[in-house]
Specification:
Elements lengths: L17 H43 L4 H6 L3 H11 L4 E3 L7 E3 L6 H12 L4 H28 L1 H12 L13 H16 L3 H12 L6 H17 L7 H9 L2 H13 L6 H8 L8 H12 L4 H22 L6 H16 L7 H5 L7 H9 L2 H24 L6
Antiparallel strand pairs: 1-2
Helix pairs in contact: 1-5, 1-6, 1-18, 3-4, 4-5, 5-6, 5-7, 6-17, 7-8, 7-9, 8-9, 8-10, 8-11, 9-10, 9-15, 11-12, 14-15
Length: 404
């Protein structure tokens, strides 16, 4: 569907008997899952192999894989929130003026972890990994469903495989929030392109409770809603269209406002919390300074890989914008906002590939090219990506000494 075409809004259908409706809905879900099964199997194989590679090396050097995956860097903060709620504030032991406040972390993931650890025998760390792994599976399914709807089964399968073989794809197996946000984002975009505005708004609300850059999903919902009511005047009389757009930003704005007042800094206090962490939006000036430092000096391999990931992301964004037929407006808005947030933010340079992980539409140009490629080219590309992903993921968790 072209970005210049409004989203179709499904007309209300006569309500069938509730029992028959549930049976048909369950049958549709099973059919969709069967179609996605090969892609999900490839994805699971990729991630399990990546984790096994990392685990083997971790055991070899005396590190525990479960700790590396479930209780490293931000995972420690999420576990703390799940156990004790918000309220931890720590001054940085190494950087003057930096104050770590757990209000910087959005609440949905630690809330789910707490719920799982409460109703199961799992520890908080085990529950965090379970939530992350289930979220990654749902994200892969959502990416497939969206790709299949817009481009067909082959391209959708390749899109899922490429997402699972990103250089930093090990994050998809960690107790981090990226898999959760990606799952809500993928299904929200799917709801948009299939004319389900209320579902899109509700899923966008949940994405906004997952991560700060979850606002990209709300931006897509609101922009596509505006396009819809402009192109389809009859949609203005559909309350679901307006309700979806109204719901979309509520998760993100609700937490930002609550965290601001909880911090004691008022309406915009959340951004002060982020500033004290050393994180703010500076239109990429800090990133450019760091790139210059890497050109003129030496630093860890992860920083050079970050430069490569950002460069590829910008190139693929340009290719996505130039793709013909033009990709769906929802994908374009969502992806552009994510890239702007990731590239334009200051500090935590090595984390930028992780911030870009939910931007799976950036992989569409490669997936479309591989759909048309010879089998040898396809196998060579996937094999090379797998080798890089497994090696680099192991390096990030067992060797690199910078925040992810």
């Amino acid at each position: 569907m072209s970005a210049d075409t409004a989203v179709p809004v499904r007309a209300p259908e006569p309500r069938p008997a509730s029992g028959n409706a549930r049976v048909r809905r369950a049958a549709r879900v099973r059919a969709a899952l069967r179609r996605a099964a090969p892609a999900l199997a490839f994805y699971a194989a990729a991630r399990l192999t990546g984790m096994a590679t990392m685990a083997a090396w971790a055991w070899w050097i005396g590190r525990h894989p479960r700790t590396l995956l479930g209780h490293s860097w931000d995972g420690i903060w999420y576990a703390g929130i799940a156990r004790h709620g918000y309220g931890l504030i720590l001054p940085s032991p190494t950087t003057h003026g930096v104050v770590f406040n757990d209000l910087a972390f959005f609440p949905l993931f630690p809330g789910l972890v707490r719920a799982v650890s409460t109703v199961t025998p799992l520890s908080v760390v085990g529950a965090g990994l379970l939530v992350a792994w289930l979220s990654a599976g749902l994200a892969a399914w959502g990416i497939y469903a969206l790709g299949e709807r817009l481009y067909g089964r082959t391209t959708a399968t390749l899109l899922v495989v490429l997402w699972g073989l990103l250089p930093h794809a090990i994050v998809q197996s960690m107790a981090y929030t990226e898999p959760l946000m990606t799952a809500f984002a993928a299904w929200a975009l799917y709801a948009l392109v299939t004319g389900r505005p209320l579902w899109a708004g509700a899923l966008s609300l949940l994405a906004g409770l997952s991560r700060p850059n979850g606002i990209a999903v709300a931006a897509a919902v609101v922009c596509v809603t505006a396009l819809t009511v402009w192109r389809q005047p009859q949609a203005r009389r559909n309350p679901r269209v307006w309700a979806g757009a109204a719901l979309a930003p509520l998760g993100w704005t609700g937490y930002v406002v609550w965290a601001g007042y909880r911090s004691g800094e008022g309406l915009f206090g959340y951004f002060e919390v982020q500033r004290l962490w050393g994180s703010r939006f500076d239109f990429g000036r800090d990133a450019l300074r760091f790139v210059r430092h890497l050109i003129t000096g030496r630093d860890a391999m992860a920083y050079y890989m970050t430069v490569a990931v950002i460069a590829v992301a910008l190139v693929t964004l340009a290719l996505l914008l130039l793709e013909r037929p033009r990709p769906h407006a929802a994908l374009l808005v969502y992806t552009v906002v994510l890239v702007v947030i990731a590239v334009g933010g200051s500090s935590y340079f090595a984390s930028k590939p992780r911030f870009l992980m939910p931007a799976f539409p950036l992989l569409l140009p490669a997936a479309l090219a591989l759909t048309r490629a010879r089998r040898r080219t396809l196998l060579t590309t996937v094999t090379a990506m797998a080798g890089l992903s497994f090696f680099y993921g192991t390096y990030l968790l067992t060797v690199a000494r910078m925040p992810m």
